[in-house]
Specification:
This protein has about 140 residues and is of the alpha+beta class. It contains three helices and five strands. A five-stranded antiparallel sheet has the order 1-2-3-5-4, covered by helices on one side. The longest helix is centred in the middle third of the chain and has 22 residues. The two termini are about 30 Å apart.
């Protein structure tokens, strides 16, 4: 896609801090990191989101994420890594090219906002009704 910043990074038209690359994916540092070591993994084939990415590219992104996460944990002594993937402007996806964020919790660093929220029990009847709606939508295509 011509105007996609991630496609331009893949083509080498925009510089990046690469940490991993193979035939299907590219992993590079996020230039607006939530924590030190925050990396992005993207497929080389353009797909806007989870609904559009091919099964093969999705598998490749997640296989690469295991490798990159291991490197992050080893290099930064991270106690954990949040894997975050957003789909659509409504949830603040900014670049419309599928990407997986790997966000490490580094020693001495603050809690990650993506992994800390108050656990409040839900309404079981409401949860059940929502599950039934989703299940029906899946059955009806």
């Amino acid at each position: 896609m011509e105007d996609c910043i991630f496609c331009k990074i893949i083509k080498g038209e925009i510089p990046s801090f690469k940490v991993y690359e193979d035939d299907q994916v590219l992993a590079f540092m996020d230039i607006n990191p939530i924590s030190p070591g925050h990396a992005l993994i993207i497929p080389k084939n353009h797909a806007a989101n989870l609904a559009e990415i091919s099964d093969g590219d999705l598998s490749a992104v997640h296989r690469a994420s295991k490798k990159v996460m291991g490197g992050i944990e080893k290099a930064l002594k991270a106690s954990g890594v949040a894997c975050v993937q957003l789909n659509g402007k409504g949830v603040n996806q900014v670049v419309m090219h599928y990407h997986l964020h790997l966000i490490p919790k580094v020693p001495g660093g603050p809690d990650l906002p993506v992994s800390t929220w108050e656990i409040i029990p839900g309404d079981m009847d409401e949860i059940n009704a929502t599950a039934e709606k989703i299940s029906a939508a899946l059955k009806n295509g």
